[in-house]
Write a structure and sequence with these properties.
By secondary structure, the protein is of the alpha+beta class. The chain is built from seven helices and eight strands. Among the domains are: 43 residues, no CATH class; 99 residues, Tetrahydropterin Synthase, Chain A (2-Layer Sandwich); 93 residues, no CATH class. Helix 2 packs across helix 4, helix 5 runs antiparallel to helix 6 and helix 6 packs antiparallel against helix 7.
Amino acid sequence: MFGYRVPAPDEAMLISGGRGAGGAPFRVVTGHGAFVMPVFRKVRYLTLSMQEAEVAEQCVTHQGIALNVRAVIAFKVGNDTESIINAGQRFLSDQDQMSVLTGRIFAGHLRSIIGSMTVEEIVTERQKLATEVLDGSKTEMVSIGLSVDSLQIQSIDDMGAGYIAAMAAPNNAAIQRQAKIAQAQADQAAVEAQQASARQQAEFARQTAVVQAQYKAQIDKAQAEAAQAGPLAQAEAQRAVITAQAELAKQQGDLRQKQLVAEVIRPAEAEAEKVVILAKADAERTRIAAEAAASNDRVALDQMLINQLPQIVKEAASGLQGANVSVLNGADGLGEIAAGLVSQGLTILESVRKGVIQQPEGTPARTTNGQLPPA
């Protein structure tokens, strides 16, 4: 809006051209805006921000020793209307003069306070020095509208006179002595630590030797037991071999028994079967001969015997079917076996015939076991 002004947060707006409150030469506005009538009113701004002033002053102590003191003051314009009016009347046209005037005020009070103190007090009680300077300058600072936030003594030196160094010498000596003592204690502790380490290493070496000796003894014992266990292990292995051999022999015996059954018993049974077959054939021959003799019909008897010859040969051949017969010369051997069977049948036939002829006339024919043939 035309004619409406607003100051910054860290500024005070001073409106001149009329009377302020309480008879002030201008109106003070902070924290809000105000309408300013053009031409009839004039607006100026006074900073309320933090300011800084440095002091480097040569001072003489109560002992007459010159000291160079450096300090820093932090200040600002007071927040109340009275402080703003006082500061505005003094610094509005040249606000940089606030730092210059503040430094001079503090320099004067610093010289005054240091002149009443000794070097020892100044060096050892800096906070006391700062407090007294602040208290001494407070009235003057308030009168010009300024308030001090802090005062820091940065450095104090005797400009090469050596007083402060001499004053610090006992403390330095004590500190050095304490440092030497601490160093000696540290060295002693280091030596003791080294000795303890050496003792620990020796103990470790001893324990290592003991452990190695025990380990070697265990190894020797194990080796001795292994050496003793060697023959026992061999005997155990030999016993296992013998057991295995016995089991193999038993299995071989069982196999041999089966072979004997196949090679001896079965052929013997076949031979017995053959004998039974021949006996049956002989019994049949005797029966036939007896029947022929009883009828006195030798021709019929011969014819009957001849007719029975193939059956006899057949029975003999069937008896050999289950026998274990080895044929060495192939077809010739088979022919020889067949010829033998026929020859055997003829021999049986001839025997039957002779038996019948040798029977007296009128005597009933008998079989080979002496019994009468059936009627």
